[in-house]
């Protein structure tokens, strides 16, 4: 801030300790800190007021430029929005009503002269035939057949595959009902 080196700060601290004394030094530093804080706040406030004045001056200039542009546009168009409204304030009420009646009759005559619109021929839309879905056939189950002979499998593949379990024999229910013997 003030470009003071550490050695210079130590020298100032030593002189302050000798001149002020160790008892009053904390109070003196506190007072100096408060004074520096007040100076900083005053500087910030001054800077804020200066910036506000600059913005205000810029806004005034900008407003003046916008008004000049608006005036030049209005002067170039020569449009008076009040002029069309003066006709409605006329004291003679028959003139606007007569003009309206004439305009209405002209519009009706123009519409009567136009040919009547022709209606298009009626269109009949028939529904498209819907094809019935073919019944789905369920795939038939194949029965497992018990091979009585061993299929011709190379010995290399037969050694790798485990042997299939033999089919279980079913018990005859009739044999059980008669004597309770099983086959």
From TrEMBL:
Gene Ontology biological-process entries: protein transport by the Tat complex
Coarse class of the protein's main subcellular location: membrane
Compositionally biased residues, Low complexity: 109-133, 148-165
UniProt GO molecular function: protein transmembrane transporter activity
This protein's UniProt keywords: Cell membrane, Membrane, Protein transport, Translocation, Transmembrane, Transmembrane helix, Transport
Subcellular location: Cell membrane; Membrane
Domain of life: Bacteria
Stretches with biased composition (Basic and acidic residues): 98-108
Start and end residues of each stretch annotated as Disordered: 75-183
InterPro entries noted in UniProt: TatA/B/E, TatB
Membrane-topology descriptor: Single-pass membrane protein
An annotated GO cellular component: TAT protein transport complex
UniProt xrefs under Pfam families: TatA_B_E
Family membership: Belongs to the TatB family.
Subunit structure: The Tat system comprises two distinct complexes: a TatABC complex, containing multiple copies of TatA, TatB and TatC subunits, and a separate TatA complex, containing only TatA subunits. Substrates initially bind to the TatABC complex, which probably triggers association of the separate TatA complex to form the active translocon.
Function: Part of the twin-arginine translocation (Tat) system that transports large folded proteins containing a characteristic twin-arginine motif in their signal peptide across membranes. Together with TatC, TatB is part of a receptor directly interacting with Tat signal peptides. TatB may form an oligomeric binding site that transiently accommodates folded Tat precursor proteins before their translocation.
Name recorded for this polypeptide: Sec-independent protein translocase protein TatB
Gene (UniProt): tatB
């Amino acid at each position: 801030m003030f470009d003071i080196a550490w050695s210079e700060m130590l020298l100032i601290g030593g002189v302050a300790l000798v001149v002020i004394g160790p008892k009053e030094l904390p109070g003196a530093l506190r007072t100096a800190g408060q004074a520096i804080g007040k100076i900083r706040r005053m500087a910030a406030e001054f800077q804020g007021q200066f910036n506000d004045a600059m913005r205000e001056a810029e806004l005034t200039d900008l407003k003046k430029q916008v008004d000049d542009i608006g005036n030049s546009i209005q002067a170039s168009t020569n449009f008076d929005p009040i002029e069309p409204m003066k006709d409605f304030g006329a004291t003679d009420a028959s003139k606007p009503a007569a003009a309206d009646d004439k305009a209405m009759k002209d519009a009706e005559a123009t519409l009567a002269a136009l040919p009547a619109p022709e209606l298009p021929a009626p269109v009949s839309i028939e529904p498209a035939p819907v094809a019935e879905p073919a019944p789905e056939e369920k795939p038939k189950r194949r029965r497992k057949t018990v091979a009585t002979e061993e299929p011709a499998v190379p010995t290399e593949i037969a050694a790798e595959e485990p042997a299939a379990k033999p089919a279980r024999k079913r018990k005859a229910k009739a044999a059980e009902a008669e004597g309770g013997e099983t086959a």
